[in-house]
Design goal:
By secondary structure, the chain is of the alpha/beta class. It has two domains: 208 residues, no CATH class; 99 residues, no CATH class. Helices cover 46% and strands 11% of the residues. It contains ten helices and six strands. Strands 1-2-3-4-6-5 form a six-stranded mixed β-sheet, with helices on both faces. Strand 3, helix 3 and strand 4 form a beta-alpha-beta unit. Helix 7 runs antiparallel to helix 8 and helix 8 packs antiparallel against helix 9. It is globular, with a radius of gyration of 24 Å.
């Protein structure tokens, strides 16, 4: 490999599954979080999370990592490749569940843990020009437009200065919106997350450690093979989504539009097109889910598992795809 060629690095999601759970590599996560949150982050431990539980279905879903820092806060880091229209609600659910899971019976509400949700997204979520969004909770006066503040006694009780420090904090990193121009240390991290490359001149915290630890060439042969299989799974899943939710959705949409136009001749063009689009979108979504499930079964997955991944009932899958009676 030539000196000026980028070093091949494993993706951050795979690192979260394997390498970053080791205390020896906490420095990498600490660097990323310190640059994102603009404070010195020290990780104490990795906590149990959904992606700790490896199973056949899990590899088609998101990758998440939950850590506890030296301030006693819970930080959830999630990587998501596939588009999910209800992602914001699921993000809220994940933070809320983390809060309730870490409140022991008999604890007062003042002991509720602070949760920071960091979401690394490889799909377009919402409309906006920026590539990093931060969400916090604040209370604004309806009449005077002032911001509610903690009293001095509350600050002592909670050990916090601002009300938003008590509530979950959300970060949305929209990777596709980054223009590949790294002007800040945080940008250097975003560049790595998008391009799997760390340039020689990058100085952000944790990146040089990542450059060595995440080098594909430095992984044992069995780890390299596992990584390639994981990447193949991601590509296959992306292909399923594109072909099924893309082509199937559009075919259903076109059919629905045609039907809607016909109805619109009698009921009004505008109303008919709108109704046809709604019917077409619904038909396309159902067909797309069935196509996904059918292909997963062809790859060796059970009917039950395929139905769960695709988001349909096993009975609907069997009746629609002619798979026969349930066993």
């Amino acid at each position: 490999m030539k000196a000026n060629q980028p070093r091949k690095l494993i993706t951050f999601d795979w690192a979260m599954k394997r390498l970053l759970r080791s205390k020896a590599n906490f420095e990498i996560l600490e660097g990323f979080l310190s640059e994102l949150l603009h404070e010195e982050i020290v990780i104490l431990e990795i906590l149990e999370s959904e992606s700790n539980k490896e199973n056949k279905i899990d590899k088609f879903n998101r990758v998440d990592l939950k850590v506890k820092n030296s301030a006693g806060e819970i930080i959830i880091i999630e990587v998501q490749y596939e588009r999910e229209y209800d992602y914001l609600q699921r993000m809220l659910y994940g933070a809320s569940r983390a809060i309730t899971e870490h409140l022991r019976e008999g604890d007062t509400y003042s002991q509720l843990v602070k949760v920071i949700s960091v979401n690394i997204l490889y799909f377009d979520l919402g409309h906006g020009r920026d590539y990093i969004y931060r969400g916090v909770t604040s209370f604004t006066g309806i009449h005077d437009n002032d911001h509610l503040q903690l009293s001095s006694s509350q600050q002592k009780l909670y050990g916090k200065e601002q009300i938003f420090h008590l509530f979950p904090e959300y970060y949305l990193i929209r990777i596709n919106n980054f223009n590949d121009i790294a002007t800040t240390p945080l940008d250097e991290w975003i560049y790595f997350l998008k391009n799997e490359e760390i340039k020689d001149e990058f100085k952000a915290k944790g990146l040089q450690k990542a450059r060595k630890a995440l080098s594909l060439l430095n992984q044992p042969e069995n780890e390299r093979l596992e990584y390639r299989r994981y990447q193949d799974d991601l590509h296959y899943q992306a292909s399923l989504v594109e072909s099924s939710y893309g082509v199937g959705h559009m075919e259903g949409l076109e059919q629905g539009v045609e039907k809607g136009i016909e109805q619109g001749l009698a009921q009004g063009i505008a109303q008919g097109i709108e109704q046809g689009m709604e019917q077409g979108m619904e038909k396309g979504r159902e067909q797309g889910k069935l196509d996904v499930a059918r292909r997963l079964i062809e790859k060796g997955m059970s009917e039950q598992e395929a139905a769960e991944v695709a988001g349909v009932s096993p009975d609907f899958l069997r009746s629609s795809c002619g798979l026969g009676d349930a066993r």
